[in-house]
Write a structure and sequence with these properties.
Order of helices and strands: HHHH
Strand content: under 5%
Mean pLDDT: 76
Distance between the termini: 68 Å
Shape: flat
Radius of gyration: 33 Å
Number of strands: 0
Oligomer: single chain
Number of helices: 4
Helix content: 55-70%
């Protein structure tokens, strides 16, 4: 290598795309997007497969539990399977609610108890710390107001 080659870094330039530069063999064909009905049919098929697989797994667990006898140790597997089944059935029946509360508060039931009020803080040390922090914040706010005027 010469000193000129070492001194100048090599950079690659992107070729500009033009319709004349591409040949019919090099163009990528776009796949047509499936319509809504096709997507629903595809998803329905997938869900049906999952339901059938779920049934088979439940049968296999039931057979294994019977073969192992009482106190077998498949309790964890059965619990996990029932949790999966509950989530699948909720997803199929529910209105598309995911995990958590993204869309707003969950609907409240009429039998739910009212939230308990917070207990009053009576510890003298904590009260003194709170008072000191409040006084410090008030002083800082007053200083900020004085600086802007």
């Amino acid at each position: 290598m010469t000193t000129e080659e070492i001194a100048t870094p090599t950079t690659r330039r992107r070729r500009a795309r033009s319709s004349a530069a591409t040949t019919p063999g090099t163009e990528r064909a776009r796949r047509p997007r499936p319509s809504g009905g096709d997507l629903v049919a595809q998803l329905t098929g997938m869900v049906d497969k999952l339901i059938a697989e779920n049934r088979e797994l439940k049968r296999a667990i039931a057979k294994a539990e019977k073969a192992q006898g009482p106190g077998g140790g498949l309790g964890q597997a059965a619990k996990a399977l029932s949790g999966l089944q509950r989530r699948v059935s909720q997803a199929l029946a529910g209105g598309g609610r995911g995990r958590g509360r993204r869309g707003g508060a969950a609907p409240k039931s009429t039998t739910a108890a009212a939230p308990r009020p917070r207990r009053k803080v009576t510890d003298p040390e904590v009260l003194e710390k709170r008072r000191a922090a409040l006084a410090k914040a008030r002083a800082a706010r007053a200083a900020k107001r004085a600086a802007t005027q």
